Amino acid sequence: MLNLSLRFKAAATLMLAAVLFSPLCVAQEPEGDVDSPEAAVEKLSGAQWLLKMSQAVSQTNYQMSLVEQRPGSDTVPYLWRHGVFENGITMEQLSMLNGPGKEFIRVNRQVSVFEPNVAPFSLSGRIIDGPFPSDLLLNPLDLQSAYTFIAIGRGRVSGRAAQQIRIVSRDNSRYAYQLWVDEETGMPLKMNMLDQSGQLIKQIQVTQFTTSAEPHEFFSRINHEALPTITAVPLSYHQHNWQIAYMPIGMTEVKRNTHRLSVTDQVVEYAMLSDGMVEVSVYVMPISASGPQNNVYRHESKTLLNRTEGGMQISVIGEIPPQTANKIATSLVARVE
Amino acid sequence: MTQEQENLSAFVDGEYQGDDSALVSALKQDTELQDKWRRYHTIRDGLRGELPADSSIDIANSIAAAIADEPAIVAPKRRLRDLPVVGSVIPLVKQSGQFLVAASVAAVAILGVQNYNTTPEIDEPLMTAPPIAGRPQGGLAPVSLEQTRPVERTDMATLLEQRRQINALIADHERQLQLKQAQMQDSTAQEQAAEQDQQPE
After folding, report:
1. Domain A242-334 top-level CATH class
2. CB distance A317–B141 less than 8 Å?
3. What is the DSSP string of B96-130?
4. CB of A214 within 8 A of CB of A61?
5. A 236-265 residues with CB below 8 A of B?
6. Distance from CA of B42 to the nearest CA of A (A)
7. pLDDT tens readout for residues B79-134
8. Nearest-by-Cβ selection for A73 from B114, B164, B172
9. CATH 3.20.20.70 correct for A41-226
10. Burial, A232: exposed, middle or buried (Cβ in 10 Å; 0-12, 13-18, 19+)?
11. How far is B157 from chain A (nearest CA, A)?
């Protein structure tokens, strides 16, 4: 199931076996020298492990099965493949395995999306936006303005020796994460999202993974001419007469526009905040007679907070604690020219 | 005693090599050792940055007290060891805390069938968890009365309209996320292209 033999020296295998099956070989180990297997593993900081992970994700050939789980909703299984070719081209595939399915194929910077009932389209992107936050995989060090990375120690995940890294927001205003990275290859193996009382609200677990010297043969079957061309996404920007006075540390406004909600056709003024790990949407619209009152809702791992003020309704949505959503919503002020 | 402390420390770290059950029974006898056990865990959690924001330190005792107070008419008294796993007890307490926190922000309702009260088992490894017969899976979970309690049963039409707007907002948020991916990466790509252009000169 796991391709352990690849790039594995005999000594390393022995060491790993000694760690994983320590009860079997206690007798062979000299007393008081318990630290020796630990010392053989590089002692890296949390940031260094994340850097190793981002290099592994973008520079190796792999195939993994993973599942995403949220309490109270169905498990979502994915297949994720990545290949690096001699001419520098990288290809990536992410496939949702349950239901009608949805498939992403990336060739270099072009991400094509295939889903039922929608004509295939392509977007430009450096990585497929999968279950793991894409900024965490691409530029983990950029997240340090918002989060600290704490190396916790080793553990065993998906049958592999893994290093646990804790990702905590600097002002404790966002959910915290536990991430397990494969000690040998640096690949991500598991990620938990925890709320402020330590309750699990989202989990990604790798169930199987293989690395290989050659890219998976799936990539050779892709017909490059058949991929849809990149759809231009207009970068519209509208200035509104309000601004957000409070943002959690490391969070910035990345988008602002005015558009219609596709379901109700209502026109909304919109801003998006991001810290690389999570995105928060802020909506401002005229209050409607039967519209939501001041309420907090939770939908899967997302918080939705509605607040009415002076004939306007403010809605904040994102994977953030309700307290933080409330702080953002109450901080809206008129824009000073 | 020092040997015991050392053993306990190793046990907390998951590195105790000796007989676990002997240590656990020693732990059950000795209240002083129990206090140490709790402190070691608190210290370790603190070092790892894992302490909950509302660190009400002594959860176990408050659970025991709450269970003892439980009126026998409503439910027969259950002792702590009658409960399946201690691990499944703790989240219940934490959750009620969560409710209080949310309630202080505003009146709370929980949307749809996403029920955060019935899933303490989530810590189990996913790849080995078999479907449990008789327990509804995933999206089929029934809406329990508890969830709808905070919503006043006044006007059904208003409620539906509210739900429609909430769904519209959530759908739009998802769509914006997908679009953002393309737009952000587009702009970083442009920046990088610009940087590369400048470098040779």
Report:
1. alpha beta
2. no
3. HHHHHHHHHHSEE---TT--SSS-GGGGS-GGG-P
4. yes
5. 254-255, 259, 261-264
6. 13
7. 544 444 443 433 333 333 333 333 222 223 344 332 333 333 333 344 434 444 44
8. B114
9. no
10. exposed
11. 9
**Which of A26, A72, A196 has the CB atom closest to B114's CB atom?**
A72
Q: Which residue has the higher pLDDT, B179 or A219?
A: A219
Short-list A120, A119, A98, CA closest to A111: A120
Domain boundaries, chain B: 1-51, 154-201
- Minimum Cα–Cα distance from A153: chain B residue: B48
B95 to chain A: which residues are within 8 Å by CB? 197, 199
* Amino acid found at A281: S
pLDDT at A309: 83
Q: What ipTM describes this predicted complex?
A: 0.79
Residue from the list A111, A291, A323 with its beta carbon closest to the beta carbon of B101: A323
Q: What is the DSSP letter of A230?
A: B
pLDDT digit string, tens, across residues A128-151: 988 999 899 999 999 999 999 999
Element (H, E) at A188: strand A188-194
Output phi, psi for A190, to 5 deg: -165, 145
- Judged by DSSP in three states, A306 sits in strand
CB contact under 8 A, B98 and A126: no
Hey, which bits of chain B come out as E strands?
107-108
- Quick check: A84 and A90 in contact, CB under 8 A? yes
Q: Round the average pLDDT of chain A to a whole number and report it.
A: 84
pLDDT (tens digit, 9 = 90+) per residue, B133-189?
444 444 334 433 333 444 444 566 777 777 788 888 888 898 888 777 655 545 554
Helical ranges in A92-219 per DSSP H: 134-138
